[in-house]
Structure formats: structure tokens, C-alpha cells
Amino acid sequence: MTGPDEPTAFRLAYVPGATPAKWVRIWHERFPDLPLTLLQLPGAEATAALRGGSADAGLVRLPVDRMFFSAIPLYTETTVVVVPKDHVIAAVEEVTLEDLADETVLHPLDDVFDWERPPGEPAFERPATTEDAIELVAAGIGVLVVPQSLARLYHRRDLTYRPVTDAPESSVALSWPEEATTDLVEDFIGIVRGRTVNSTRGRTASQDEAKAKTKAKAEPKKQQPRRSDAAGGRRKPPAAKKAQAARRGKPRRRS
Q: CA 20 to 30 Å from 52, out of 38, 60, 115, 219?
């Protein structure tokens, strides 16, 4: 955990296709005086930013180096093939990798899939980025297999996409350097996990609980009213009770 030198802003890296907007909104509502800086970076640059300390946490694609990073898997995306709208694949609801065997399948250098062997026929040259590959699909050079979020991110009116039922899938995770699990990271983990302000296990809840315990110890305990006092009567001392009991038990003298 951090000490007095804790940074005054939380820096969140995220890869193309990841959508941190919901969690960022909750952060601003919960911590209005603590800025959150967003850094949209390609996959390799996002993990490099986390390693180098220029980002506190990141929404990245798995796998990550679990010897260095902690990671909380968030969701797994549907894999789709992007094609021109007049392509034959556009006429069906879904395809398999075998259906792409005769297609030129573009394989960009920033491809998020760890293919043992990419499907289809390889293109003459690998495009530098997924965005460049999308442009080549629009030009009729080939088709592209990507997570659905990237197909939406680079959407064009002349293109469409269809699910590939047996393709590898891409999972997005919240990740951060394990040895840099700061209070700010704990706060963001609580938001991502859906914890409320009262249920958060991070810094805010811990401080509130500590304050509540300290306040409870400082307050004097309230004395409960005695039974006779609550009834409005006066309680007699023990000695008077014994004398009264003795008088009741002694027989009266006859005259």
C-alpha cells in the first residue's frame, strides 16, 4: 500500500476496443476530488506503461505475464470476421474457420490472437495495424478476423461482420503490477467488482470503519434504567427488604 507519497491522480491504460466509460463515471461520482487519467494505448504499449510505472492499472487483453502482473478477468469477446457488405459471407449468420479456407485473411502485426496458424490464405504483406487491415478489407484485398469490439471500433458503412464459431477468443482483464497494488488500485478494483461505497474493501471503507470504531470507544456507555425506576417506583434497599420480610413472618400477639 502507498504512504504519504501517494499520487494525486489515478492513471488507467486501456487497449483499443476496451470500454472503461462506466467505471470511469462511477469513479468520478465516488471520488470527485481525485482525477482519473485515461491512456488509450496499443496492447504492447499498455503493458509497457504498466511495467514502466506510467500507468497504475490497465484494461488489457489476456494473457499477461502472471509473474509480474495481477489480473482480474472481466469478459470474453465474440470473435468475428469483417467482410465487405457485398461479400458472400454477409449472406449467412455465422461461419467457421473452414469457411475461410479459400479467403485471403489479413494478419496485422498487432493481431490480438495467438494463432498457431492463421486461417485462410496469407496476404502478400502483413498490415501494420488492425485499423490498416480494415482499410484493406474495404478495398477488397481480404477479410479480417478480430474481436467484435474492434469490428465496432473501426466500423465502416461498406463493411459488416459475422461471428466465427470455432475461432480463438479474446478476454479483457483489469491488470496491474502485483508489487504496486496501491490504495488507488484497490479503489478501482472495488468499482470494477461492483462494490458499493459501504461494501468497498478499499481505503475509503477501511477509514470509515476505523473512525466508527474509534467513535464507539470514545462514547460512554448508556446505563439501562432499573426495572423499578422504569415503572416509576422507588427501589428499597436490601436491609429494608429483610426487616419487612421478618415482620411479615412474625405472628401477631393476641390481647
A: 115
